[in-house]
Amino acid sequence: MSLVQRITLSMVVLMALTCGAVVATLYHGLQRALILRDEQTLSNRAEQIDQLLRDGAPAQTLPRYFDRMMDTAQDILVIQPARGEAIVMNRTGVVLPESFSRRAFDAGKINHLTDRDGVDISLLRIASRAGEMPVLLTVARVARTRGEMLASYHRLSLVVCAGAIVLCLVISPLLIRRGLRAIRVLSRMTETISSAQLGQPLAAERLPEELLPLAAALNRMRARLAEDFTRLTQFCDDLAHEMRTPVSVLLGQNQVMLSKPRTVADYQRLIEDNIEELEGLTRLTDSLLFLARAEHRNVGLERQTFAPGELLADICAFLAPLAEEKQLALRVQAGGQLNADKLLFQRAVINLLTNGIRHAPAGSAVHITALARPGSLTIEVANPGPPLARPDRLFQRFWRGEDARHTPGSGLGLALVSAIAALHGGEAGYRHQRGSNIFFIRFSQP
């Protein structure tokens, strides 16, 4: 069922319920008003006839007054003297029950009874006097006219309600489609957007107020898509550049080697160089695959509790030959316990420490510190040096500074550190403090 049909059905149901409630309310209100009118008429007529009797008017002459003051088509008058026969004035066509004259009714109050046809009869009985003789005076009104009026009103109300429902059924889809026209406009605006136009926000000034939140949400989504698309394009460009260099090297070496006969030693050196380049491509592919899985939280963590100080010492021992080439000192200060994936912890720290060794001045020292705080543990790697340019891009893929051609590495090390931190609910960052560049990774503790 379409949205127009659902809204139309809801409006028709609402219209039917509203019409039913209004008709029922007005019907009962009209019915009550007619009953009160009849009861007031009975009271007035009874008082008038009672006054005539008390003023000495003979009971036999009262039917003449009755003809003048009352609607003989729906009113009944019964005068029951203490002695003699009752005077009955009944031209309504309603057959009164035999017990009508003898039945005890509440004197001075409006009583109700139903004849054999189910017609309601309102009755008022009062005690009066004709001279010295007690008289029982009964005035009644048959509600046949009232019933016909209510039935006519009921029929007319049903016709009006049915017409209103049919009108609602016909007009509602037209009005709803007109109201939803803005959604179609928004759909066309969204449909015509190309990748080059993702950064351009939708023109929301032509939309109604109710659709402004949707337009704002679409604009925010477009901004995120534009940013992701830009990153994806840049990533493809960087990846192509990174892959082109080793592939070109492999292709050039093999072409040169095959240009003329070579010795076995030359072929062995070529194979060794090819293996070295292929190992670099394998590391690059593994790093990219890990980053892709990390972004989608598709990396299973094998958390365990360990002392980071011991592991940091082992990592420094592993990288000591690389530090000795630049006459660097590796200094570790760590304590506490950490709950994390041990292999990923090693990978992140090795990347940070390798980055620190690579950029530290010869003869200086690289400091590795583990800072334990409630709910987290931070590993900091600090090396002397001037502030780095573009700190906002340090943890992006393939970023190797402004002079990327002369910077070794693939530019994925810090991006891997950031991804490992995110997997552990932490963060990675950089700051320059007291003449040192400090890179850190923070692990949240469960």
TrEMBL record:
Cited function: Member of a two-component regulatory system.
Protein name: Sensor protein
Subcellular location: Cell inner membrane
Keyword list, A-Z: ATP-binding, Cell inner membrane, Cell membrane, Kinase, Membrane, Nucleotide-binding, Phosphoprotein, Transferase, Transmembrane, Transmembrane helix, Two-component regulatory system
PROSITE patterns for this protein: HAMP (PS50885), HIS_KIN (PS50109)
Molecular function (Gene Ontology), one example: phosphorelay sensor kinase activity
Record gene name: yedV
Top-level enzyme category: transferase
Topology within the bilayer: Multi-pass membrane protein
InterPro entries cross-referenced by the UniProt entry: CztS_silS_copS (IPR006290), HAMP_dom (IPR003660), HATPase_C_sf (IPR036890), HATPase_dom (IPR003594), His_kinase_dom (IPR005467), HisK_dim/P_dom (IPR003661), HisK_dim/P_sf (IPR036097), Sig_transdc_His_kin-like_C (IPR004358)
GO cellular component, one term: plasma membrane
Species whose genome carries this gene: Shimwellia blattae (strain ATCC 29907 / DSM 4481 / JCM 1650 / NBRC 105725 / CDC 9005-74) (Escherichia blattae)
Tree of life domain: Bacteria
